[in-house]
Amino acid sequence: MQRRDFVKLVGGAAAAWPLAVRAQERASIPRVGVLWQRASAEAEGEYFKALMKGFSELDYIDGRNIKLEHRFAGAMPERLKSMAAELVSSNVDALVGVGDDAASSAKSATSTIPVVFTLVVDPVGSKLVENLSQPGRNVTGLSSSSPQLFEKRLQTLKEIMPALARVAVLVNANDQISRQYIDATEAAASSLGMTSQTFEWHTVNDLGPAFDAVKRAGMQALTSSPEGSAFAYGALIAQISLVRGLPMIAWSKDALKHGALMSYAADMEAICEKSAAFVDKILKGAKPAELPVEQPTKFELHLNTRAAKALNLTIPEALLKSASETGE
Fold first, then answer.
1. Which residue, 116, 178, 299, 313, is most buried by CB atoms nearer than 10 A?
2. Does 178 share its domain with 255?
3. Is the per-residue pLDDT at 188 higher than 80?
4. Is residue 22 part of a domain?
5. Which pLDDT band, with edges at 50, 70 and 90, does 24 fall under?
6. What residues pair up with 36 in beta bridges, in sequence order?
7. Are 122 and 196 found together in one domain?
8. Coil, strand, or helix at residue 111?
9. In what order do the strands lie in the sheet with 166-172?
10. Are residues 184 and 306 in the same domain?
């Protein structure tokens, strides 16, 4: 070999080495797919920010030492399924499903890639895990609900509305946890000497007629199930409730800025933030089957004084003092 050819060969290889190293480094960055139920990061609002904060506090920087692949379904179940399949086919290292529908879509898409769910009401009832302490298989995460929530919500509303006797339960008939939510609300209402009645909707176009039926039935207040569709359209449901003169019990403080009267719930933002810690453990070698599902232990009361004024309701002073936050 001629000397000049040898020098050229070595020089070219040396120049290529940094490129090869950088390519290998990029390839080694873990990739995490995140399925969201609303249409954009802006629509997810504080939940999106909370999850990003969780990763940031664990020293993950998107694009540098982790790659977060976000997918936004816009309350369309079929899009969730196709997006989950797309992420699985791209061989992500883990999947995060935010909300019941997203979590179920993630689980259905893979039996091998680790799945972390968050903001799920009933992980066992929705068949995401076998039990809470030993999830089994490739799925674990964080629940956002507890059985005592249902009765506490109605008790609190009755303090504001002492004559409360009839509560509407608005559920999306397409969502899988409706029955669990209906049963729990019925039991809570019965224990307090009240009755509840279920009103179903399938698409966003059904919400107007569903509220018409609620008013015709003489319902005095309303609660909405916390499923994927209700979450995605939570702002609209809260707005309609206020316009129709129906005090709404929400399962997230997020709905209060749109017109819900009150919420008694776990801190959803904190739950989203903690989801990053589950992903971190899995990326470091933990098996989802051996990570117990985390349930909330702290619950917060939030009250919307502006909505109360619009509904001609007076919130007792003692209740205002016990609230974590009130909207002025």
1. 116
2. yes
3. yes
4. no
5. very low
6. 72
7. no
8. coil
9. 195-201, 166-172, 221-224, 248-250, 262-266, 299-304, 325-327
10. yes
Residue 11 lies in a domain: no
Number of domains in the chain: 2
pLDDT in tens, 286-303: 999 999 999 988 889 999
Helices in the chain by DSSP H: which ranges? 3-28, 41-44, 46-57, 77-89, 100-109, 148-160, 178-191, 207-216, 228-232, 234-243, 268-283, 305-310, 317-322
The predicted-structure confidence for 242-298, as pLDDT tens digits, reads as follows 999 999 998 888 889 999 999 988 888 999 999 999 999 999 999 999 999 999 888
CA 324 to mean position of chain CA atoms:
21
Domain with 107 in it: 29-145+268-290
* Euclidean distance between CA atoms 236 and 201, whole angstroms: 13
Contact 270, 237 (CB under 8 A): no
Name the packing angle between helices 46-57 and 268-283 (round to 10°).
40
> Is 137 inside a domain boundary?
yes
Residue 139 has pLDDT above 90, yes or no: yes
- CATH value at residue 322: 3.40.50.2300
Name the 3-class secondary structure at 107: helix
Hey, which residues does 223 pair with through a beta bridge?
169, 249
- Assess whether 174 and 72 both reside in one domain: no
The pLDDT of residue 324 is 81
